[in-house]
Design a protein that fits this description.
The complex is a heterodimer of chains A (about 325) and B (about 300). Chain A is mainly α and about 325 residues long. Helix content of chain A is about 65%, strand content about 0%. Chain A contains 13 helices and two strands; from the N terminus they run βαβαααααααααααα. Chain A has a two-stranded antiparallel sheet. Residues about 1-30 of chain A have low confidence and may be disordered. Chain B is globular, with a radius of gyration of 24 Å. Chain B is about 80% helix and about 0% strand. Chain B has a domain at about 95-310: MetI-like fold, CATH 1.10.3720.10. With about 300 residues, chain B is mainly alpha-helical. The mean pLDDT of chain B is about 80. At the A-B interface, helix 6, helix 7, helix 8, helix 10 and helix 11 of A face helix 1, helix 6, helix 7, helix 8 and helix 10 of B.
Chain lengths: ~325, ~300
């Protein structure tokens, strides 16, 4: 798609990337694709990224439509399973650890609950914890790193030492500490993992900012009188974005894994709420006799994490102008 | 360089102090009374009160804090509330297991991750690159304990070449290494995935830079261009991710040690949480934290070596 552009408006356009696609001047009207459209086209050409988006949408769809909460809320009743074949809490004690069958595609767990229904409902916890924790950790961490790396001096020392203190605790141990103080529960888990992730983003943003700010164009911007905030926003941030996005994609995966780890240790969302991590934990006791109890939730984690990684890779290619040409 | 190192070391002191303070107060705001936890719910009020007195819990919090710091300075980690044993002795027994696991995993992760990442970047968007990316994604997608179980099933049960559980005898290198192999492979492979991804990403960034093109135009071999020009510039984020992973591996060893029933700091930590052994919990967290402060210090020093501009 191309738009006809009034040549008089050209000076208002960002020619940074699009100067490459300007048609020769003898064409009646200069055609410039909007930058957003170009980014979108780069993205949809990236097949792994589309696969990632597709898988992520499936997980999202599963999480939203696990039950009919959106109808139940208006009718004032409890939600009934919609995508999930059974109630995830319904026990069938006579068929404990039953293998996958036509009635129960992923078998039954040690309480005789339908595994597939529990995995479908469990997607809610994993997805919510993964995305919300990375949003909290990513935004606060990147701001800390960018500010520290760019400002230098006392601000840098203070912020980086603060991240040192937080990073001095490995993610799982930090998560354990925060949960020990706040107590369990979904919101505390999100907050705990967000706090765990923030220093990582801060350090990478800091390291990259230090390198970027030594570049001549930053010096040039400063010499023409650009303020600190403008330099950080216009020159430094776009240059460290691709690295932060790759990290964000890795860390949504990591957030889901930390959640699984905490659940594996037994400190996750309280039972009987289905969460993939605690399902694997339950399954490890029967690994040799009933491997499906751990296997399927593990696969659910794998697919969800894979989706975010593929998507993150695709976004990186889109946001990194150097790779576009 | 020496000045940078000295200032970095000096700056680590307040960090360590802040970490110790955080641990001290966190352990104290954990709900529940340590004395009651140690004696059980049915202990008499007198017994609980006597234990609180003996543990110094009736002192003002600030006095407890300085006692805690003074004890640490003397290397006294206190005694376990559950077993009554010296914690420093318990730590001395298990620390070597965690250290060898962490360092072996870092070596496995770096030696596999960096070359695979460079290889992938050089062949971006080819079949080889695609396979490398899929494998690294798979490695990132598997929880550490799950991969541990799968590796254990494969190399200890299906093809029984390594022992499935235990830590082996530290004085017998053969027993020690054979017990180390599977946990180190588990953590090493997980780290490899992340290092590969970031190395590839960082190398792709620099391989398209003008100075790399200039180096090629000068007629330098691809090997020299990649290793001496491109890799050097890509090293800052790579060192960063290895530093981050080194810290993360220490935590993941909690899970691996649990899966492989291996002695170590992680197993001690989980045990102290489950048994509500607050003195042991406090000591193990302090050791973990000091360990990671050390790793961060080393990462910063390596930063300044690979990118001298960073020393300001």
């Amino acid at each position: 798609m191309s738009d006809n552009i009034d040549p008089g408006k050209i000076d208002k356009l960002d020619l940074g990337i699009d100067s490459q696609v300007l048609e020769p001047l003898d064409v009646p009207a200069i055609r410039i694709r909007s930058q957003r459209k170009r980014l979108w086209q780069t993205f949809i050409r990236n097949r792994p990224a589309i696969l990632g988006l597709f898988l992520m949408l499936i997980v999202l769809f599963t999480a939203i439509f696990a039950d009919d909460w959106f109808i139940a809320i208006f009718q004032g009743r409890d939600p009934q399973p919609l995508l999930a074949p059974y109630d995830p809490l319904l026990q069938d004690p006579t068929n404990r650890l039953a293998p996958p069958s036509r009635e129960h595609w992923m078998g039954l767990d040690s309480y005789g609950r339908d595994q597939m229904s529990r995995i479908i409902y469990g997607s809610r916890v994993s997805l919510l914890v993964g995305v919300a924790a990375v949003l909290i950790g990513g935004i606060s961490g990147a701001l800390m790193g960018l500010t520290g790396g760019y400002q230098g001096g006392k601000t840098e020392n203070f912020l980086m030492r603060a991240t040192d203190v937080l990073m001095a605790f490995p993610s799982l141990i930090m998560g354990l500490m925060v949960l020990a103080v706040l107590g369990g529960g979904l919101f505390n888990m999100i907050l705990a993992i967000g706090i765990v992730l923030a220093p990582t983003f801060a350090r990478v943003a800091h390291g990259s900012t230090l390198t970027v700010k030594e570049n001549e164009y930053v010096e040039a911007a400063r010499s023409i009188g650009s303020g600190n905030f403008r330099i950080a926003r216009v020159h430094v941030l776009p240059n460290i974005t691709s690295e932060l996005i790759v990290l964000a994609s890795i860390w949504i995966a990591t957030a889901i894994r930390v959640e699984a780890n905490l659940s594996f240790i037994g400190l996750g969302v309280s039972p009987p709420t289905p969460a993939w991590g605690s399902m694997i934990r339950d399954g490890t006791k029967y690994l040799f006799d009933a491997p499906w109890v751990s296997f399927f939730p593990g696969m659910a984690i794998l697919i969800t994490v894979l989706a975010f990684n593929l998507l993150g890779d695709g976004l990186r290619d889109v946001f990194d102008p150097k790779l576009q040409h | 360089m020496a000045r940078y190192l000295a200032s970095r070391l000096l700056l680590a002191i307040p960090t360590v102090l802040a970490v110790l303070t955080l641990v001290f107060f966190v352990v104290r705001v954990i709900p529940g009374d340590p004395a009651t936890a140690a004696l059980g719910d049915y202990a008499s009020q007198e017994a609980v009160e006597a234990l609180r007195e003996r543990m110094g819990l009736n002192e003002p919090i600030i006095v407890q804090y300085f006692n805690f710091l003074a004890d640490l300075l003397r290397g006294d980690l206190g005694t376990s509330m559950i077993t009554g044993k010296e914690i420093s002795e318990l730590v001395r027994q298990v620390l070597p297991y965690t250290l060898e696991l962490t360092f072996t995993s870092i070596i496995v992760g770096t030696l596999l991750g960096v070359p695979i990442g460079i290889f992938s970047a050089q062949r971006a968007n080819t079949t080889a690159d695609y396979i490398g990316r899929v494998l690294s994604l798979a490695g990132l997608s598997v929880p550490a304990f799950y991969l541990g179980i799968l590796i254990m099933l494969l190399f200890a049960v299906k093809i029984p070449i390594f022992p499935a559980v235990g830590g082996g005898d530290l004085t017998d290198w053969k027993s020690n290494l054979s017990h180390l192999a599977l946990p180190a492979l588990t953590l090493g492979l997980i780290m490899t995935a992340s290092v590969t991804r970031l190395t590839r990403s960082a190398m792709l960034n620099v391989l398209r830079d003008d100075y790399v093109r200039t180096a090629r135009a000068k007629g330098l071999s691809e090997r020299v261009v990649t290793l001496r020009h491109a890799l050097r510039a890509a090293l800052v984020p790579i060192v960063s991710i290895i530093g981050i992973w080194a810290a993360s591996l220490v935590a993941d060893s909690v899970l691996t040690e649990t899966v492989f029933a291996r002695p170590g700091l992680g197993k001690m930590l989980v045990g102290s949480i489950m048994q509500r052994d607050y003195t042991a919990l406090q000591s193990v967290m302090v050791i973990y934290a000091l360990f990671v402060v050390g790793i961060n210090l080393i990462t910063d020093v390596i930063y300044s070596i690979v990118d001298p501009r960073i020393t300001h």
